[in-house]
């Protein structure tokens, strides 16, 4: 008697570039005896943004993705498998592979935001034409939607209410193990090459900047190493609540964001490690605060699920566009280039331009300044962040911009940041500003924050007319 041919499943990797705690991978191995892992570099993500024509994926994120995919391939090889790599449109490339391999299913971890949903819907429709299906799994959130005590359409719109309704009653599930072996037979299927980094970055391969807070090496092992370093080696987790608003250095915050955004690390894995630390070392406000921030991340994902495309629109989930902002390119350019004449804003914008990263405190300030002081359409800032951020995540980025613009789901939220008092509070000695604005080195201590108030003769003496800039709008703080 001949045995039945192996049943084949195509495992489509997306923003889940890891083997550990990967539900689609775990289920694929259960489902079929031949697993074909595939990653498609979606050509559209390396073109321009739709609305404002920025590079869709800036060079820091491109490099991070490139490194993460390369490592995923190596890790799959160490489990007896490999990674099929393609360049093009996933809905066409995956379809072709499924057709060629006569697979039974394509599986992936489901995405929930506009562009990602369009791609998965298109693939699904293509697969139907050859009698195949796309099966979805979960890999993004700390709390599974099915475990929440409310249906998505009725989920609370205010973070505090959301948090209170879940944290005492819903358990975070344990992370899934890394599979020991992945059964794969590729037959004649072309394996495909990793595209060059030149191609991904349009020839703009970024240099490492030694002023950067963290260099963000891509990949699952770098992610696990960072987790180990932040939690166990430096034990920075024990002081996170105190340090999280700082601006300089490796360990004031976790730097998990890029790993979470590309899925090199799962939020459940971080949660599990923090719980172990709490049991073995100490449990305090700071260890709790890491879980709290991961809940913010989940909250924005849930809001993206609930309000769908509205998070990207001028009026946001509230459906109320701001009447006092406009698409002012001159003001936007000054902001984007770090040339507003407000040192605290400019330093933060220089940091994101030079590294793809900015602290959470910095992001809040520059966003508030753009919208509330410069009165520029918040979508210009959000799309610029989308382009540049190494940790860009549609739900977190647009959710935070919605919140700061006051068009988000929270009916009360409309925050204004007084930039000078923020600068004095979080960069009291001016070290952060001087770190990114070398032209202001002459100004010691916190005085650096108010160079715009200095008399003309001081500007001339320090050559500020040549090296720095008068404020775009005179602040009244
Ligand atoms: P930590 O302080 O160590 O926080 C740990 C983790 O908690 C983060 O990695 C992140 O996953 C989560 N987290 C913390 N704060 C937030 C928050 N406000 N919203 C959602 N999740 C949070 N984060 C992104 O991951 N991608 C984005 O595209 C993004 N865009 C933002 C845009 C604006 C305007 C603002 C104000 C915030 C944005 N954030 C975004 C949230 C936050 O600034 C970053 O997650 C954080 O600075 C990353 O550094 P970290 O990993 O060291 O953070």
Tell me what the structure shows:
By secondary structure, the protein is an alpha/beta fold. It has 20 helices and five strands. The protein has three domains: 1-139, Rossmann fold (3-Layer(aba) Sandwich), CATH 3.40.50.620; 141-175 and 220-307, Alpha Horseshoe (Serine Threonine Protein Phosphatase 5, Tetratricopeptide repeat), CATH 1.25.40; 318-467, DNA Cyclobutane Dipyrimidine Photolyase, subunit A, domain 3 (Orthogonal Bundle). It has helices at 23-31, 59-77, 90-101, 114-128, 159-167, 197-200, 220-233, 240-243, 257-261, 267-280, 285-307, 329-336, 343-355, 360-373, 378-388, 394-405, 419-426, 431-436, 456-461, 464-467; strands spanning 8-13, 34-42, 84-88, 105-109, 133-137. A five-stranded parallel β-sheet has the order 3-2-1-4-5, with helices on both faces. The chain binds flavin-adenine dinucleotide. Residues 244, 253-257, 260-261, 293-294, 296-297, 300, 359-360, 363-364, 367, 385, 389, 391-393, 396-397, 400-401, 404 line the site of flavin-adenine dinucleotide (FAD).
Mean pLDDT: 96
Under the CATH scheme, the architecture of the largest domain is Orthogonal Bundle
Bound molecules: flavin-adenine dinucleotide
Strand content: 5-15%
Total of helices: 20
* Count of folded domains: 3
SS elements, strand count:
5
> Per the principal axes of the C-alpha atoms, what is the gross shape?
globular
Low-confidence stretches: none
Core attributes:
five-stranded parallel beta sheet, DNA Cyclobutane Dipyrimidine Photolyase, subunit A, domain 3, globular, Serine Threonine Protein Phosphatase 5, Tetratricopeptide repeat, alpha/beta, 20 helices, 3 domains, Rossmann fold, 477 residues, binds flavin-adenine dinucleotide
